[in-house]
Each structure stands twice: as C-alpha cells, then as structure tokens.
Automatic annotation (TrEMBL), chain A:
GO terms for molecular function: ditrans,polycis-polyprenyl diphosphate synthase [(2E,6E)-farnesyl diphosphate specific] activity. Residues 43-63, 212-245 are annotated as: Disordered. The keyword Transmembrane applies. This is ditrans,polycis-polyprenyl diphosphate synthase [(2E,6E)-farnesyldiphosphate specific]. Its main location: endoplasmic reticulum. Residues 234-244 have a biased composition (Polar residues). It catalyses: n isopentenyl diphosphate + (2E,6E)-farnesyl diphosphate = a di-trans,poly-cis-polyprenyl diphosphate + n diphosphate. The chain crosses the membrane at residues 69-90. InterPro entries: Nus1/NgBR, UPP_synth-like_sf. It is found in: Endoplasmic reticulum membrane. Its EC number is 2.5.1.87.
From TrEMBL, chain B:
It is an enzyme of class 2 (transferase). Residues 251-278 have a biased composition (Polar residues). One of its GO terms (molecular function) is ditrans,polycis-polyprenyl diphosphate synthase [(2E,6E)-farnesyl diphosphate specific] activity. It comes from the Eukaryota. The keyword Chaperone does not apply. Pfam families: Prenyltransf. This is Alkyl transferase. NCBIfam families: uppS. Residues 245-294 are annotated as: Disordered. It comes from Amniculicola lignicola CBS 123094.
Length: 356, 383
C-alpha cells in the first residue's frame, strides 16, 4: 500500500531503517532476524553506555573528556538560547491573547442582562446540564478588589447569574480550600441579589445552595417548591427539576476534601463493613463506588471551565472527571464572561465519542 | 504550529509516493517533491537532523525535567481517515510515533512514561480493529523479547497496567515474557495502560485496600487503643437486655453495622442476612473477635500504594493529542492535583520531538516561574 510509505522526514531516521521498522523486512526479503535488527539499531543507540575497553591510553581519555566538555557547553548554550527565544515568544503570545481577549470581551458583553446571554447561547445545539468551574481563593492583594472571600463571592455570583441566564440547571463551584462552605447563608443571599439584579425581582429564578455533607440552603422566602425539602435528601442532579416558570438554579460547592478524601472515607466505610461481615468484598465494584460518590458529592459534570492560564486540576474530585469536557483559555487570568461563553461554544461543537 | 507543516509535508509525500497516474498528472510538482524527498532522505541530511535532535535533547536536559509523563495517544484513526489509509495502518504509524517519543523522553531524562494504549471501552470497536491491535501488540512485544542483551543495557522496564483478565491468552504470554525480561531494568519505566480505565484502577485500589484490611491479623491482635473492650461492653449490655427483651439478637446487628442504608438496594437484603448470622456465630465461637487493621489508618498513601502506578513519581505532565479536551478515564487519580495537562491539536502519528519540544519548554518555563514565586513567598515570610 503506497501511502504507508510516508517517510518520517524529520525523525532523522534513514529510509532503509524506516522501512525495516514498518515492515520488518529490507528489500522485500524475509523477516529480519534479531541479530540483523540489532545491527540496524546500533548507530541510534547512545554511545556512552557501550562498555569502554580498559586498555585505552590516557590521551584518548583526555580527548574524550574534552569532547564531553564541549558537548555540555553546546547543550547549555543551546538551552539558554532556546529558552530565551521561547520566553520572549510566550510573553508576546500572552500579550497578544490578552489583547484579543479584551477585544472579544468588549464585543460580547452581557451588560448584566439575561436576554443578551440568552441570545448568545440561543443557537447552540447542545448545552451542558451540569456545568462546573474551578475558582481560586486569591490571598494576595495584587488585583485590588478581587482578592479574598469578597472577590471569590462576587465571582461565584456572576457565574451563577450567567449559568441561570443560559438555562443550565446545575452549577458546581470547586474551590480548593472550601472556604465558601462556611458562608453558605451569606453566599445564598449574595447570589440571590445578583440574580435579582440580572432578572429583576419578578422573573428571578429560584436558587438553592448545597455542599456535600452539609444542609442545603434554600430559605423559605424562595417560592415554596419541592426543591427546598428535597435538595438535602435527593441526589443533586435529580433535585434540579422543580416546575417553576422562572427556572431553578442549583449551586453546589465543592472543595478538595470532596475528591480523594471522600474516596478514602468510602474505602474506610467499606472496609469496616467487610470486617463486620456486612458485605462481601466481591460486592464492591465500580458501580457501587460510583453510586456512592454521586450521592455523596455529585455526578459527572458535562463541562468544566477553568479560568486559570493553564490546565491544572488542583484536586478536583477525580472520579467525577471521567468524560468531562475541560475548557480553558490559554493565558487567561480571572473570571470573565468571555471564557464562559467560549466554553459553551466549544462544548456545543464537540461530538461525544465514548469509545475514544 | 509545527503540526500543520508536518501534515502538509506528509500529504505531499503521499502524493509523491502515490500511484504513477498521480505523478504523471502532476509532473512538475511531482519532480520537485521527489527532489525534496531525495534530499530529505540523503545520508548527510539525515545525519544533520539526527545531530540537531541530539543537541536539542541534550539542551532540554539542562533544565528541569518532568519525572513522570503520560500520553493519551489519540488520533490514529482520524489520521488514517484523513489520509485514506486503513485504520490499522494508522495504528502502526501511531506506534512509530510512540517509539520516537519514547526515545526523546528517555534521552531527556524522564523516569516514567505512562501511555494509554488501550481502553476497556475500546473493546467496543470493530472486531477487526481490536484483533489487529492485539496482533500488533503481540508482534512488537515478541520482537522486543528477542533482544535480551540490548534490553539489559538500554531498556526500560515495561509494566502493563490494567485488567489482565481481559487480555487474550496468546497476547498475555508475550506480555508476560516482555515484562519479566525487563523487570530488572532500573533506569526507566514504561507503563503501558492496556485494557485500562481509571475508574477500574481506583476500584481495584479500593478493593485491594479492603482486602488487606479485612484479613484477620492472626494470633496476636494489635494492642488496643483504649483500655475498654467493645466486646465486653456489648456483652454486658446484652446480658442486661436479655432479661427484658428476648428478640434482642435480631436488633443487635442494625445498631452495629455502619449505615447499611447507604448501600445499593440489591445489596441491602444480603447484607442484612449476613449480619444477622454473624453475631450468633461469634457467640458460639469462644475465641475473641478476629483482630483487623483499623480502617481509620487508611490514608491517601494507602490508596496510592494500591494504584497501578504505585511507587512512580507524581505525574508531572499529561499530554493528549488530537485536540480532544477530555481525560477519557485516564489517570484520573494521578493527574487531578498538580499535573500540567496539555491538549494538543496534532494527531498522534504526527507527534514528534518538534511538537513535544514546545510543550516541554513551556513546562520548564512554568516550573521556573513557580520556583521564583515560591522563593518570593519564602522571602516574604522570613521578612
């Protein structure tokens, strides 16, 4: 077959060797023997590992050492040059991305109006049912007004409002330290206020704020829906469908303890049960673990949006990440609407392929 | 950046090597390409590229080097589809890319490379493709096993991570031979994830942990943490209750077992029966309760040690090709903390040093920035 003859031009391997590698033969002969293959390989193997004969004269050794020094010198200088060029390139690329990002941000702005957001996502064929974001607790006061708990809260509020506007029923917010979990009532109040600012008091969607192992927070002043009593007992994904004309938004707060910690806790519980004879070890399978983790933490998010410049998951619950689409905007820093919107666009385009 | 250039080039070479009609219809372009091809495959050029690669690799070595790199080798099939070659052909070109990239990794100084060779989900593909993949794995492993001396000198130790029981018998033989042949190589490790999914891995780690913790410790039980014996307390209570409530035995297990309601329904019935039987057995047997390891001592380390990647350094870098931004059930436990995850647009068969170099350099750059930050923070703290 002709097309298979693509030579690996930039691999630095000769055509003879390439053919040998692909077909195991040279010049259409029979299969190569192990010896012949080794002979072919020889020039490509690292030299230094070959056992040096002991009887070499000292002059040859000196010569070798000189050559080695020269090589290291070349390596170090090439390393310096290459990393310098790339660091310049990276910086330029970052500023370019920042500029284009700002341009897009000006063109596409939500103006705190749900209609604008709805218009932006209207033609998307596929929206995530469960959106997840990773946020950072920013301790430093570098970016004024956006540090600490206050900044984090306002980020969550904005994202929640966008999510509600886009019509996504479940938003999970991962923040490593879990500080938000200590302020659930306040957070609920803040998000409600933001939603009111976006939607107006009459069209405001109802809201419940939950966290694993904590009482869900849906105060009585939200319309009397089945959400408030159910949210604590029913799994999060199911409780997200109260019939309200304004829609309902579930906000789920996650932190690093909901990741490995929860799996460890589950292992402890299961071990204890096996020790007591309550279950057989053979009954433990991935379905059982999945069920337990979905009940205790959350199901798999469809889309995970990172607002960080690179992809680092920072301890996000691992079990839930299986097929989640991960979106990040390279070199982006901080929460903004543009990333949110681009993530949704990206998600709508991608076809779901389960078997890779 | 390089990906597109590489793709064009390979497409061009396909043209050049294509059927003779093709060449005749494009005589000019054909001859130009042929000259280029001839030049590219001439010994001095190959030697030059070889040297350039060596120098670049040697240069990369001067900076921080990731200790553990994982690859999701995605895009073989799309590569084949785009170039109108057979899927199997795409896979074997993918294997070639793997060989190239392994050479780069180990020469740069990466200690552990983990590759996603075959997912449990992949068994759902056409039988033809699965069989061809298995045959390829078998052939390559068998060829590898013929080079015992070379492997000892240069080889990495190969480990197969995944559900062994799903591997075909004849392939398993080749796998075991290659694994045992390379087991003593200490320089580097190649983890081949072969029928693997991360959830299966986590599940098996949980199960192994449970197994270790549910084995009775034998004759000498560990010293009790507190001076009170649970058993004597329950006995005491039981003696008191016995006079009042005769059906106490059936109530006992529900209060003892740890929230069986959290179990699946299907398990609910069996668990209640087994618990009901258990205490009576204990009562009959005169010897004390079998001593177990305390489940509270299960930590992250315990599970880590039971993962397939036990003992490997933490995953520094995970690269997925073909532009799909998903983990697809790979290394979930290992990559969800500090790992840099990189998604590349190029397809796996196109992947080479030229695509990997920018990734590595960016990683080194980030690493240096992190170090600077930490140093800065340290200075702040001391001040």
């Amino acid at each position: 077959m002709a097309p298979a003859e693509v030579p690996a031009v930039t691999a630095g391997v000769g055509p003879k060797e390439t053919v040998a590698f692909r077909k195991g033969t040279i010049d259409g002969r029979k299969q190569l023997t192990a010896k012949e293959r080794e002979a072919l390989m020889d020039p490509y193997l690292p030299r230094k590992a070959s056992p040096a004969p002991d009887g070499t004269s000292s002059r040859l050794k000196q010569h070798k050492r000189k050559e080695g020094l020269l090589r290291t010198f070349i390596y170090i200088s090439v390393y310096r040059i290459v990393s310098f060029i790339f660091s310049v390139f990276f910086r330029f690329r970052r500023s370019w991305r920042l500029v284009t990002g700002k341009a897009v941000a000006v063109l596409k702005h939500h103006h705190r109006t749900p209609e604008f957001i709805q218009r932006d996502v209207k033609h998307l064929e596929r929206l995530p049912k469960h959106l997840s974001v990773i946020l950072d607790f920013d301790e430093s006061d570098e970016n004024l007004g956006h540090a600490g708990l206050e900044g984090l809260t306002s980020d969550v509020c904005e994202i929640a409002a966008w999510t509600a506007s886009a019509g996504i029923p479940l938003l999970s917010v991962y923040e490593k330290s879990g500080k938000l979990k200590n302020y659930m009532p306040q957070l609920h109040k803040h998000i409600s206020q933001t939603l009111e600012a976006y939607f107006g008091p009459r069209r405001k969607p109802t809201l419940s704020v939950r966290a694993p192992h904590l009482q869900s927070y849906s105060p009585p002043n939200t319309p009397p829906l089945n959400a408030s009593p159910d949210a604590a007992s029913v799994s999060p994904s199911r409780s997200a469908t109260p019939k309200s004309e304004n829609g309902h938004l579930n906000v789920l707060l996650l932190s690093s303890v909901d990741g490995r910690g929860t799996i460890i806790d589950l292992t402890k519980t299961l071990s204890e049960m096996v020790q007591k004879g309550a279950i057989e070890p053979s009954q433990v399978d991935s379905n059982l673990i999945d069920q337990q983790l979905v009940d205790a933490v959350s199901d798999e998010p469809d889309l995970l949006v990172l607002f960080s410049p690179t992809v680092q998951l920072k301890g996000y619950p691992p079990w839930q990440l299986r097929l989640t689409e991960i979106f990040h905007l390279p070199d982006n820093k901080g929460v903004n609407y543009q990333v949110f919107l681009r993530a949704l666009y990206n998600f709508a385009k991608v076809e779901m392929r389960l078997g890779r | 950046m390089d990906a597109r250039g590489g793709a064009d080039e390979s497409r061009a070479t396909i043209l050049a090597n294509g059927s003779p009609e093709n060449l005749r219809s494009l005589p000019r372009a054909g001859s130009k390409l042929r000259v280029r091809n001839w030049l590219a495959s001439s010994p001095p050029v190959i030697w030059g590229i070889r040297q350039l690669r060596e120098i670049l690799i040697g240069a990369l070595k001067q900076g921080p080097v990731p200790q553990h790199v994982a690859f999701v080798m995605d895009g073989n099939r799309r590569f084949a589809r785009d170039r109108h070659i057979e899927t199997v052909e795409g896979h074997s070109l993918g294997f070639e890319a793997l060989a190239r990239i392994l050479e780069v990794c180990y020469k740069v100084g990466v200690k552990v490379v983990t590759i996603y060779a075959f997912s449990i989900e992949n068994f759902k593909r056409s039988k033809h493709e699965v069989d061809a993949l298995m045959a390829m794995a078998k052939l390559k492993l068998e060829q590898l096993s013929e080079h015992g001396a070379l492997l000892d000198r240069y080889g990495a130790s190969i480990r197969i991570l995944g559900q062994r029981e799903l591997i075909r018998e004849d392939v398993l033989v080749a796998v075991d031979k290659a694994v045992s042949l390379t087991a003593k190589n200490k320089k580097a490790i190649l983890n081949v994830c072969f029928p693997y999914t991360s959830r299966a891995e986590i599940t098996s780690a949980v199960k192994t942990t449970i197994d270790t913790y549910s084995k009775p410790l034998g004759t000498n039980p560990p010293p009790l943490k507190r001076p009170f014996s649970e058993k004597r307390i329950t006995q005491h209570i039981r003696n008191q209750m016995l006079s009042a409530v005769p059906e106490e035995a059936s109530e006992q297990p529900t209060s003892r077992s740890n929230s069986p309601s959290s179990l699946k329904e299907s398990n609910g019935t069996s668990s209640s029966t087994s618990t009901a039987v258990n205490p009576s057995e204990k009562d009959e047997g005169q010897h004390p309760d079998p001593a177990f390891l305390d489940p509270e001592t299960i930590t992250e380390e315990t599970l880590n040690d039971n993962m397939y990647t036990a003992g490997a350094p933490p995953l520094d870098l995970l690269v997925r090709t073909s532009g799909v931004e998903r983990l697809s059930d790979f290394m979930l436990w290992q990559c969800h903390e500090k790992t840099s995850v990189v998604f590349l647009e190029c397809l796996w068969p196109e992947f080479d040093l030229w695509q990997f170099l920018p990734v590595l350099i960016e990683w080194q750059w980030q690493q240096r920035k992190l170090q600077e930050q930490e140093r800065g923070r340290g200075r702040l703290k001391t001040e």
